[in-house]
Write a structure and sequence with these properties.
By secondary structure, the protein is of the alpha/beta class. Helices cover 42% and strands 15% of the residues. The chain has a seven-stranded mixed sheet, with helices on both faces. The protein has a four-stranded mixed sheet with strand order 1-2-3-13. The structure holds pyridoxal-5'-phosphate.
Length: 444
C-alpha cells in the first residue's frame, strides 16, 4: 500500500475484493457508458477506482495514494475541504433545493459577495451548474444586450461543449460533427492583438454586427497559453471602439487558480461579463456563475424569466460557493497559490532543461502549469507513468501535447517535492523513449 506525504488517516474501509469491484465497474462502463472509453481506461492502466479523497491526496480502491495535481482546475481547495463540506452538510439538512417560488438567502448572499470581490462594476449574477452553462448565459446576454449576433473567440479556446459554448470553442474535432453551429462566430489567433483588431473591424461591418469578444485570460485547455502583455487591454479597447462587450471566461482561471482571485487581476482589465465555475463550488458542489455589469444586465432585468435554470444557484450550491470564498479569504489561498507557483515555476523550468529530449517547454502562473512535450504520444504515456508513481495530472483537451499540473493551493512543500521527483523520474524514461523513437537522419 503506497503512502504519500499528507496521506493516511482514512475513514472508509477498503473492499474485500477490489479487483472484482474494478472489473465489474469497467464492464458496466463498457456496456453502458462507452466501449471505447473502457478500452482507453484499460489501455492507460486506469484499472482501479477512486475511493476516498482529502486535501491533495486521493486513495484508490487498492489502498494506493495519489497526489492530485489534476482535476481540470476544480480543486483549488483540494478535495472535501472541511469548511465547504460542513457548510454543505448543514445546508443539506435545512434546505437543499429551492422551491423556486420563494426567494432563498444563499443566492442573494452569493451574488452580493461576488459583486464585492469581482472586478468593479460586475454587479449582477446568474447562477447555473457548469462552466458551459455559464458561457451559454454570457452569450445569450451579450446578444440580448447589444441586439447584435457576431462573436469573436480565439483559436484553441475552450468554453464548453453545449451547442452555444461549442460555437465559441476553437477545436475543429469537437465542432465538426455538430455543424452548423451558431452563426456569427469567428475565431482569431489567440494573443495577436492586431488580428483581433482587424477581425473586430470586419465583424462590426457584417449585417449582424459585433456583440462580443469572448476570451480566456490564459487559455487553459489550449495547453496553458499566456497572452503577451497588453493583449487583454487591446481586446478591451477593440470592444469599446465598436460598442461590443468583452466577455472573459474565467471558468478555469478564476477563484485564485493563477494567484489572484480572477485571472484578469494580473492585467487590471475589466470585462463586461465574466464567467466562473470549477473551483467556485470549492471542489464539492457544481456551480457556474455569469457576472455582468448593470448596463449588460438590462434584458435579464426586464424579463427575469428570459434565462432560467431549475437547479442553478440552489441553496446547496450557494452554501458551497460562499464557504469556498470564505476559505479562500481565511486561509489566504490566493497568496498560497502565488507562493507555491513561485516555487513550481523554477522547478519546472529546471526539469525542462534537464529533459530537453522529451520536454519542449513549460509555462504557467500560480497553480496553472503546462508541460509541453515534444510529441503527442508522450502525453498519454507520461500521464500513465505518473499515475504509477502516485501523481495525478491531466492532459489539455485542445492540445494533447501539453500535460497540465494544477495542484491545490494547500499542497505542502514536501508534497510538491514528491510530485517533482515523480515528474523527474517519468521524464527521464520519456527521454529514453524519445531517443528510441527518433529515426536517425538518412534512415529508410
Ligand atoms: C475556460 C473554460 N470554460 C468553460 C469550460 C467548460 O466547463 P464545464 O466542463 O464545467 O462545462 C471549461 C472546462 O474546462 C473551461 O476551461
Amino acid at each position: 500500500m503506497r503512502r504519500l506525504p499528507g496521506g493516511g488517516d482514512w475513514t472508509r474501509a477498503l473492499p474485500e475484493d477490489p479487483d472484482a469491484l474494478v472489473e465489474g465497474v469497467l464492464t458496466d462502463i463498457e456496456r453502458h457508458v462507452g466501449t471505447n472509453l473502457a478500452r482507453v481506461m484499460r489501455f492507460m492502466g486506469l484499472t482501479t477506482l477512486e475511493w476516498e479523497a482529502r486535501g491533495a491526496v486521493v486513495r484508490d480502491v487498492h489502498g494506493r495514494e495519489y497526489l492530485d495535481c489534476g482535476g481540470y482546475g476544480m480543486f483549488l481547495h483540494g478535495h472535501s475541504h472541511p469548511h465547504v463540506v460542513a457548510a454543505v452538510q448543514r445546508q443539506a439538512a435545512l434546505l437543499a433545493q429551492s422551491t423556486r417560488l420563494l426567494p432563498h438567502a444563499g443566492q442573494a448572499q452569493l451574488a452580493a459577495r461576488l459583486a464585492a470581490v469581482a472586478p468593479q462594476g460586475l454587479q449582477y449574477a446568474f447562477f447555473s451548474n457548469s462552466g458551459a452553462e455559464s458561457v451559454e448565459a454570457a452569450l445569450k446576454l451579450a446578444r440580448a444586450a447589444t441586439g447584435r449576433t457576431g462573436v469573436l473567440a480565439a483559436e484553441g479556446g475552450f468554453h464548453g461543449k453545449t451547442l452555444g459554448a461549442l460555437s465559441a470553442t476553437g477545436k475543429p474535432a469537437y465542432r465538426d460533427p455538430f455543424q452548423p453551429l451558431l452563426a456569427g462566430f469567428t475565431h482569431v489567433p489567440y494573443g495577436d492583438a492586431a488580428a483581433l483588431f482587424d477581425a473586430c473591424e470586419r465583424a462590426a461591418a457584417q449585417p449582424g454586427g459585433l456583440a462580443a469578444v469572448l476570451l480566456e485570460p490564459i487559455q487553459g485547455e489550449a495547453g496553458v497559453v499566456i497572452p503577451p502583455d497588453g493583449y487583454l487591454a487591446a481586446a478591451r479597447a477593440a470592444c469599446d471602439r465598436h460598442g461590443a462587450l468583452l466577455i472573459l471566461d474565467e471558468v478555469q482561471t478564476g477563484m485564485g487558480r493563477t494567484g489572484t482571485l480572477f485571472g484578469c487581476g494580473h492585467s487590471g482589465v475589466r470585462p463586461d461579463i465574466l464567467t466562473l465555475a470549477k473551483s467556485l463550488g470549492g471542489g464539492v458542489m457544481p456551480i457556474g456563475a455569469t457576472l455582468a455589469t448593470a448596463a449588460c444586465w438590462r434584458p435579464f432585468d426586464e424579463n427575469p424569466f428570459l434565462h432560467t435554470s431549475t437547479f442553478g444557484g440552489s441553496p446547496l450550491a450557494c452554501a458551497a460557493a460562499l464557504a469556498a470564498l470564505e476559505a479562500i479569504e481565511q486561509e489566504d489561498l490566493c497568496g498560497r497559490a502565488r507562493a507555491l507557483g513561485e516555487r513550481i515555476g523554477p522547478d519546472l523550468r529546471r526539469l525542462a532543461d534537464a529533459h530537453a529530449s522529451s520536454i519542449a517547454a513549460v509555462r504557467g502562473v500560480g497553480l496553472l502549469w503546462g508541460i509541453e512535450l515534444r510529441s503527442e504520444g508522450l502525453g498519454g504515456w507520461l500521464l500513465s507513468r505518473l499515475l504509477d508513481a502516485g501523481v495525478l495530472v491531466v492532459h489539455s483537451l485542445n492540445q494533447p501535447r501539453v500535460l497540465r499540473v494544477m495542484p491545490p493551493a494547500l499542497l505542502t512543500s514536501e508534497q510538491w517535492g514528491f510530485v517533482l521527483q515523480a515528474l523527474d523520474g517519468a521524464a527521464a524514461e520519456a527521454d529514453a523513449l524519445a531517443a528510441e523513437l527518433t529515426v536517425p537522419d538518412g534512415a529508410g
